[in-house]
Amino acid sequence: xxxxxxxxxxxxxxxxxxxxxxxxxxxxxxxxxxxxxxxxxxxxxxxxxxxxxxxxxxxxxxxxxxxxxxxxxxxxxxxxxxxxxxxxxxxxxxxxxxxxxxxxxxxxxxxxxxxxxxxxxxxxxxxxxxxxxxxxxxxxxxxxxxxxxxxxxxxxxxxxxxxxxxxxxxxxxxxxxxxxxxxxxxxxxxxxxxxxxxxxxxxxxxxxxxxxxxxxxxxxxxxxxxxxxxxxxxxxxxxxxxxxxxxxxxxxxxxxxxxxxxxxxxxxxxxxxxxxxxxxxxxxxxxxxxxxxxxxxxxxxxxxxxxxxxxxxxxxxxxxxxxxxxxxxxxxxxxxxxxxxxxx
Amino acid sequence: xxxxxxxxxxxxxxxxxxxxxxxxxxxxxxxxxxxxxxxxxxxxxxxxxxxxxxxxxxxxxxxxxxxxxxxxxxxxxxxxxxxxxxxxxxxxxxxxxxxxxxxxxxxxxxxxxxxxxxxxxxxxxxxxxxxxxxxxxxxxxxxxxxxxxxxxxxxxxxxxxxxxxxxxxxxxxxxxxxxxxxxxxxxxxxxxxxxxxxxxxxxxxxxxxxxxxxxxxxxxxxxxxxxxxxxxxxxxxxxxxxxxxxxxxxxxxxxxxxxxxxxxxxxxxxxxxxxxxxxxxxxxxxxxxxxxxxxxxxxxxxxxxxxxxxxxxxxxxxxxxxxxxxxxxxxxxxxxxxxxxxxxxxxxxxxxxxxxxxxxxxxxxxxxxxxxxxxxxxxxxxxxxxxxxxxxxxxxxxxxxxxxxxxxxxxxxxxxxxxxxxxxxxxxxxxxxxxxxxxxxxxxxxxxxxxxxxxxxxxxxxxxxxxxxxxxxxxxxxxxxxxxxxxxxxxxxxxxxxxxxxxxxxxxxxxxxxxxxxxxxxxxxxxxxxxxxxxxxxxxxxxxxxxxxxxxxxxxxxxxxxxxxxxxxxxxxxxxxxxxxxxxxxxxxxxxxxxxxxxxxxxxxxxxxxxxxxxxxxxxxxxxxxxxxxxxxxxxxxxxxxxxxxxxxxxxxxxxxxxxxxxxxxxxxxxxxxxxxxxxxxxxxxxxxxxxxxxxxxxxxxxxxxxxxxxxxxxxxxxxxxxxxxxxxxxxxxxxxxxxxxxxxxxxxxxxxxxxxxxxxxx
Amino acid sequence: xxxxxxxxxxxxxxxxxxxxxxxxxxxxxxxxxxxxxxxxxxxxxxxxxxxxxxxxxxxxxxxxxxxxxxxxxxxxxxxxxxxxxxxxxxxxxxxxxxxxxxxxxxxxxxxxxxxxxxxxxxxxxxxxxxxxxxxxxxxxxxxxxxxxxxxxxxxxxxxxxxxxxxxxxxxxxxx
Lengths: 344, 763, 175
Ligand SMILES: Cc1cc2nc3c(=O)[nH]c(=O)nc-3n(C[C@H](O)[C@H](O)[C@H](O)COP(=O)(O)OP(=O)(O)OC[C@H]3O[C@@H](n4cnc5c(N)ncnc54)[C@H](O)[C@@H]3O)c2cc1C
Ligand code: SF4
Ligand code: FES
Ligand code: FES
Prior knowledge:
The complex is a heterotrimer.
Chain A: E1 5-8, H1 12-22, E2 26-29, H2 35-41, E3 50-53, E4 63-66, E5 69-73, H3 78-83, H4 85-90, H5 92-99, H6 104-107, H7 112-117, H8 170-177, E6 181-186, E7 189-194, H9 195-198, E8 199-200, E9 203-204, E10 211-217, E11 224-231, E12 242-251, E13 254-263, E14 270-271, H10 273-279, H11 286-296, H12 308-321, E15 341-342
Parallel strand pairs in A: 1-3, 2-3
Antiparallel strand pairs in A: 4-5, 5-10, 6-7, 6-10, 8-9, 11-12, 12-13, 13-14
Helix pairs in contact in A: 5-8, 10-11, 11-12
Chain B: H1 17-22, E1 37-43, E2 49-55, H2 57-60, E3 65-69, E4 78-79, E5 85-86, E6 91-92, E7 98-104, H3 107-114, E8 118-123, E9 165-167, H4 170-176, E10 179-187, E11 200-206, E12 210-215, H5 220-230, E13 236-241, H6 255-268, E14 272-275, H7 278-283, E15 290-299, E16 305-315, H8 323-337, E17 343-350, H9 365-383, H10 387-394, E18 401-403, E19 409-411, H11 418-428, H12 430-433, E20 442-444, E21 447-456, E22 466-473, E23 477-481, H13 491-503, E24 510-512, E25 515-516, H14 530-558, E26 565-568, E27 571-574, E28 577-583, E29 593-599, E30 609-618, E31 624-634, H15 641-649, H16 658-661, E32 693-698, H17 719-732, H18 743-749
Parallel strand pairs in B: 1-14, 12-13, 16-17, 23-24, 31-32
Antiparallel strand pairs in B: 1-7, 2-6, 2-8, 3-7, 4-5, 9-17, 10-15, 11-12, 11-14, 13-25, 15-16, 18-19, 20-21, 21-30, 22-23, 22-29, 26-27, 27-28, 30-31
Helix pairs in contact in B: 8-9, 9-17, 13-14
Chain C: H1 2-11, E1 15-20, E2 23-28, H2 42-49, E3 68-71, E4 74-77, E5 90-92, H3 107-114, H4 124-137, H5 143-149, H6 160-171
Parallel strand pairs in C: 1-5
Antiparallel strand pairs in C: 1-2, 3-4, 3-5
The structure holds flavin-adenine dinucleotide, iron/sulfur cluster and FE2/S2 (inorganic) cluster (2 copies).
């Protein structure tokens, strides 16, 4: 990696001050699992001057309930989120989403805020500098979006404009489901941003001097059914081709509340409002689940190579609503039946 | 039934086991060199361009930079087959092509210097499709290769190198056929075997004309010979093969990185190390060749193939090194699996503006069959022939003949694999699961299962020459001289095992020399599946020769004839009166005994691998899961059971079975960029996705060498991909002919994708 | 503002201290050859500065697990960790598994040998470290636990089946 100035921030204020001082030319380093890729591949037009280590900022690693709200510190690791009994019980979709990220080693250091603020995975955008790259495109402020005419198998089918890279974060999908809010600290003080609104066509809402301090979720009534389904070609490591999170409350066999969040289909997380609305007051059966899928994807306008995502999204949603367990990796080997060379 | 040996056939500890598990194995990047410089390669952003101007002055001023080489600074050394590829050229031919080389005191400085080299390009049109590139008016990659057609044949295989299969009378054959199928199919996803350790080399140049190289390679001695020719036969080359962190065939082609290191060392007078990054490894090192075949097949109801005609187009990327060899071997292999009297199969190797293809496990045959078997399947479907019956009927049998890679006709004298095929089919449950063509073996809602089978075999198990020496020491130990790198197959230990068996010495007392071309005799290298038979034969012969000399030496001391003697554990004794014995030390402390062994090519034996797969396809998402794999083969005699198991389990990775499921190199056909040159986007199989694998290995003694064994490791990857395609087609009831079977392709085949898609940008 | 921060930074002593395989390591931060640069990864420092080349780098980008080491007992990727951020940490590498006194191999290493749980061996140190982290946490894992714990470790040779047996055998107290 090219050299950079390294700053150890010990408080949120220090980190904010450093961000402000470098005016967009510094990067926060939380778990570093996304940032290192950016630094190593040098795919951005400008290399950061400074890296601000926030690992040692005290008091940002917690999962707690306060006045009915669930609060998660920005530096809370994904492995802790995935294994938290509180989250497993009440915010299962979030625990599942965290568990679905990357690999065990990455989850051991990756943070929730880092997961939300990670950069997109578009293959043009990330093309590494050292094999003739990097490639300029609309997101880098230079030229058209190359994915439109190129390989867009992983790109947006909904809401794309200018840039069709999808939001890569798995946890964002679950957080949007719970109407989560980000508590953001900056030079001008703190503000809140809904996870649903966090992502913009070319990035996110954070200002140059802002960082995410906490993620806050409203209380969830006990009797909801939650799911997180993530479709990938293989598990783990892969980013979602499509992910779907659902939260369903059923009273007397009738759906009283339905929330549906779709991931990896758009630059941000998509809440399927029409499908949610449709399900309220209905019984969930194969027909209504399929209809919900149609409604959720009604606005989809695929690019040349990603129409398949529509089918997958519909199917995932239908299955989630019908309570099918998420697809597990194909595997069947049992230890004592491990293959041995067999001879006649 | 196989014989019982002291070591052969038993699981024995790999000689390098302790080093491997303690992290002390010395792979290339682990070896320390004093005064070392680090090299980096500036790579082209364009798929096809002329370098108009290079200005390296800014880069040269960077402290720590010791040399910068461009096409103007290097000798006119050339590689490739034919030799048309300059080490650095005025023209770049793919995104990633080498433009300049930098040596600096650290890798970081070298990398920084790359960014300071200013290059002006004149862009040329680029082509990425084999058929486009042959059209009149298409851009030309090399003046020497008109029409972008690479000169057929490789001098390595002699003047009559196989470039086509032509025999009998195809017209007559088609007249005899009850069904004729035809089509054009491809295996064009150019998967990459991506061994974990990237390619690299360290070179130390000594004036005026000597270079010593440490290389992550598969065939150390071959590198020496290859480079000698690349360097215009004017440089003395010595190669050290370090422990190799995987190759799968690809590191037979690490000549470029070796020449880079050599040139930089020559320019700086210091040792220079170049190790590719993983991104370079994927985007600027060896891929599988692209394969497209237009074929026509005539078949009878009983599965007799009456005629095969067609054209096999091989996309070799921006140059060819081993592709002619792969075509030759592929042409041989197609005959092994298709007994047919009438052939008219033509081939052409074509250059395109993408990263080069090269040697990969499956060497030509996998690529050819992945494109050819779909045509056979169409005929089998029409005639309702069970593919297992077809394979059994058509796989080479003793007495059958074929043209092999040197263009000569050979008569097969190996074993009949029908028994292995039956055993495999039984273990897999083929008869129960096979419901006929395009019929699923079971359906459960949106989940449909299907089965498929593939076959591959190769007569290269006895290809090329090997030499070995075995030195017996008076202390009762032995040293095998063989220029073999350990690249994961465990073969270095297996040769030790063979020598130990011949000499009846504990394996701990037998060692093998490092893969240093200076001290070892000639060795082609452990590739194809030649290790067990070809290299093994040389090692065995050397051990036998040494043993004979030893017995002759000590016979007088025991008052016996050499034929009456045995040796076990470093003691020689008279067979019939073992109390008359003497230690090896009796030859004197001032003497060693050196045996020599040589193997000359033999193309009359072939191995065979059959792979059965069962898949489950989710018709709503298009996801294909591999549920079960059964590999079946016959190796004559197992040398090392766990090592063999590892080789067979390897069927999944290294662009084997998974090249039909999710492995592919994604090339942007407008810009020439490889878009997934990293290990997140290039998919590989994880621990979470392991299907059960059953390996059925028979041991029918083969007339190879003393241990009646043949190798099979290389071909494990090859039958799987076509079996997957067959299985998915059967599961769905419609043909899928493209690799890999992505959800998009599955859903498209099922008619589930809307025709209309958005093409515009911002709306 | 930027200068203020730089000033503050220069007050901090330019050293990073952590332990590797039980031995305290103190490294200067700077740009001289013997120093650690801010941009150096732990994998780089282990291999190039400390000479512990048992830790392997395959992808150098977080995807393959070859560079796995233990940090305070947890499996982490040394290629994605900045050395300057290892202050106060305790790192264990493959070189730290065998008994330093007797040289006796860790049972897991022995089991890898006994099961020939490797082919080219390049992924093996990372595999062993991931498995080590699992067993420290969960001494009697199920096969599914082992697969999950190793799911971030790439092996191109497909030694997975033999690795599974090796780890399970160790977990069950050896064979
Ligand atoms: C092999 C691999 C596979 C992956 N797979 C997945 C996957 O399946 N799903 C998925 O969601 N992700 C995946 N990722 C992406 C990513 O590494 C993880 O999502 C991780 O959670 C990022 O967290 P981190 O703490 O390591 O982030 P960092 O790398 O530290 O930070 C990421 C970005 O966010 C910024 N940032 C960090 N903290 C804050 C903060 N508090 N406020 C504001 N900005 C901040 C950083 O400056 C940086 O730009 C994968 C990464 C790799 C390398
Ligand atoms: S999708 Fe976005 S990041 Fe990718 S090429 Fe288009 S503009 Fe660039
Ligand atoms: S080398 Fe660190 S994860 Fe691949
Ligand atoms: S043993 Fe070769 S990669 Fe795992």
